[in-house]
Amino acid sequence: MRKVVPPPHESLKELLFYKDGALYWTDEALEANKKRKPGPIGCFNKTNGYLFTQYRHPDYDYQRFIYGISSLVYWVVKGEWPPMLDHIDGNRLNNDIDNLRPATFSENMRNRRSSTSSNCPYVGVHRRKRGYRLTISIEGKQYTKDGYKTAEAAALARDVLANLFYGDFASYNFLDKPGLVVGGITI
């Protein structure tokens, strides 16, 4: 993966400001370039679901670089350029600063939601010929456990393992929902 060159922090802060989870052009930036429009900046990428924008980098002969809006929000507000960001709620369009946190690739993958192409609506659960299988990846190794009679039982077992091994980066099927009933007992 190519290392991303962050834009100069001070010059970016002269062009953009953060408000309510979005970046906007400053009045000076709008005056300097009439092609810029007021309102939140960024274009939606249908392929991956993120917002992006282009920036002509002054240190590289004004060559165009494409940046994720979430990275620019974090850079403008916090002054740090993390190699990767995680959207805590899993919503790629929610670029509120409180929803962004630095993460490693592994941590970011732990917070994924169930794939729409999956044969089961639960994270880490797959239908098999005779029941359901839970799958979880721990320190780069994939572990599976077959034999669950219901998808819900496999999903709950996977949630317990995710909580144990992933902590704050866990993506849950049930454990984050209040009033979970297990065996007639409300948790």
Description:
It holds the Pfam family HNH_3. GO terms for molecular function: DNA binding; DNA-binding transcription factor activity. 24% of the residues lie in helices and 28% in strands. The longest helix has 16 residues.
List keywords for this structure.
187 residues; alpha+beta; GCC-box Binding Domain; 2 domains; 3-stranded antiparallel sheet; 5 helices; 12 strands; elongated; DNA binding; DNA-binding transcription factor activity; DNA-bd_dom_sf; HNH_nuc
Mean of all residue-level pLDDT scores: 85
Unreliable segments (pLDDT under 50, ≥5 consecutive)?
none
Give the percentage of residues in beta strands: 25-35%
Distance between the termini: 43 Å
Q: Using the alpha-carbon principal axes, give the shape.
A: elongated
Largest sheet: 3 strands, antiparallel
User: How much helical structure, as a percent, in the residues?
Assistant: 10-25%
Q: Identify the strand order in the major beta sheet.
A: 3-4-5
> How many domains?
2
How many beta-strand elements?
12
Tally of separate helices: 5
Helix/sheet category: alpha+beta
How much is the radius of gyration in Å? Answer: 21 Å
Report the order of strands and helices: HEEHEEEHEEHEEEHEE
Protein name: HNH nuclease domain-containing protein
Domain HNH nuclease: 77-110
GO molecular function: DNA binding; DNA-binding transcription factor activity
Organism: Kluyvera genomosp. 3
List the topology elements.
Blueprint: H1 9-15, E1 16-19, E2 22-25, H2 27-32, E3 43-44, E4 51-57, E5 63-68, H3 69-78, E6 85-87, E7 100-102, H4 105-110, E8 125-128, E9 131-138, E10 141-148, H5 151-166, E11 181-182, E12 185-186
Antiparallel strand pairs: 1-2, 3-4, 4-5, 6-7, 8-9, 9-10, 11-12
